[in-house]
Amino acid sequence: MKPPIGRDTKLCMSLSGRPGNAGSRLHNRLYELLELDYIYKSFSTTDLPAAIGGVRALGIRGCAISMPFKEAVIPLIDRLEPSAQAIESVNTIVNDDGVLVGHNTDYIAAQTLLAQRGIDPATPFLLRGSGGMARAVVAALRDSGFVDGTIVARNEEAGRRLAEEYGYQWCPDLPEQGASLLINVTPLGMEGPDSAALAFPESLIDTCTIAFDVVALPPETPFLRAARARGKTVISGAEVIVLQAIEQFVLYTGIRPSPAQVREAVLFAHGPATAEALALPAR
After folding, report:
1. Tell me, what's the pLDDT at 209?
2. DSSP 282
3. What is the Cα–Cα distance from 268 to 274, expressed in whole angstroms?
4. Is there a contact between 225 and 253 (Cβ–Cβ < 8 Å)?
5. Of the candidates 108, 148, 109, 149, which has an alpha carbon nearest to the alpha carbon of residue 129?
6. Is there a domain that residue 46 lies in?
7. Which of 18, 57, 164, 234 is found 20 to 30 A from 141 (Cα to Cα)?
8. Which of 2, 10, 41, 70 is catalytic?
9. pLDDT at 81
């Protein structure tokens, strides 16, 4: 049985511009299954330095970092592990006795999903976005051998820098001709003001073969619905968020849950569609 909450309970948390419930449900369910004296809570903030100061001062064990804080948090922590240093983006902070260490598990998740789908690295891609998560996905693409890609970003400075750093092309607007692999790494389609937005026009979805959307809430964005209706291969943000969350869980607790435990937690937090997509065993 999981210990009751008390003075020795370790707190883990997340910071996001638009916090949701799935991460908290996943982590807390795993704590229950593994009988760990931890609790997880999601937060937002308008004062990032104060929030990170609180992580340090209160001894919060771990903190997941989501948009729009993944790059802004770097000057506020003590050091970066190679996964974060290589892409200048942090999605996980581990508090080791007051020393805040930055990691990036988004990169691991993106690379894993590309490999699981068996996507040929010769496949040309079109990626929309230039923030911290975009950097993680672009790095995963490069390190997986993808050589033919275009970064679409209205922010010329960020878009050009990202494209040039990883050896890809940049353009400010979506081209008329798409690519076999379309990747959305923007808030388009996310719950909130952009929930009805289609990340790519139907003309580009018609001609693609794989649709990859990192937006996790809702699990089925307008982009993914349109792609699935056309029989395209789909990679969802819900899958990304689960895989990266498991790596965070391991960093915080030092314990890797079994595939069956992950499946039960995913079913609890995200529902059967995500568990099926991840091909997690029932036992």
Report:
1. 98
2. -
3. 11
4. no
5. 149
6. yes
7. 18
8. 70
9. 94
pLDDT at 83: 85
Residues in the chain predicted with pLDDT less than 50, given as ranges, are none
Strand partners, 63: 13, 93
Which range marks the domain in which residue 267 is found? Answer: 10-104+239-277
Q: What is the pLDDT of residues 160-218, one digit of tens each?
A: 999 999 999 999 999 999 999 999 999 999 988 989 999 999 999 999 999 999 998 78
- Predicted local confidence at residue 271, as pLDDT: 85
The pLDDT of residue 276 is 75
Nearest in space to 174 (alpha carbons), one of 197, 194, 195: 197
- What's the distance, Cα to Cα, between the start and end of the chain in Å? 20
41 catalytic per annotation: no
Residue for token pair 């511009």: 17
At residue 217, the pLDDT reads: 79
Token code pair at residue 213: 């959307």
Domain containing residue 262: CATH number: 3.40.50.10860
Q: Counting beta carbons within 10 angstroms of the beta carbon of residue 2, is it exposed (0 to 12), middle (13 to 18) or buried (19 or more)? A: middle
Q: Specify whether 231 is located in the same domain as 144.
A: yes
CA–CA separation, 64 and 102 (whole Å): 10
Q: Is residue 115 part of a domain?
A: yes
Give the per-residue pLDDT at 219. Answer: 81
Query: Are 152 and 265 in a shared domain?
Result: no
Together in a domain, 122 and 176: yes
Check: CB of residue 190 under 8 Å from CB of residue 214.
no
Q: How far apart are CA 265 and CA 187, in angstroms?
A: 26
Give me the number of domains the chain comprises.
Answer: 2
If asked whether residues 98 and 163 sit together in one domain, one would say: no
pLDDT of the residue at 155 = 95
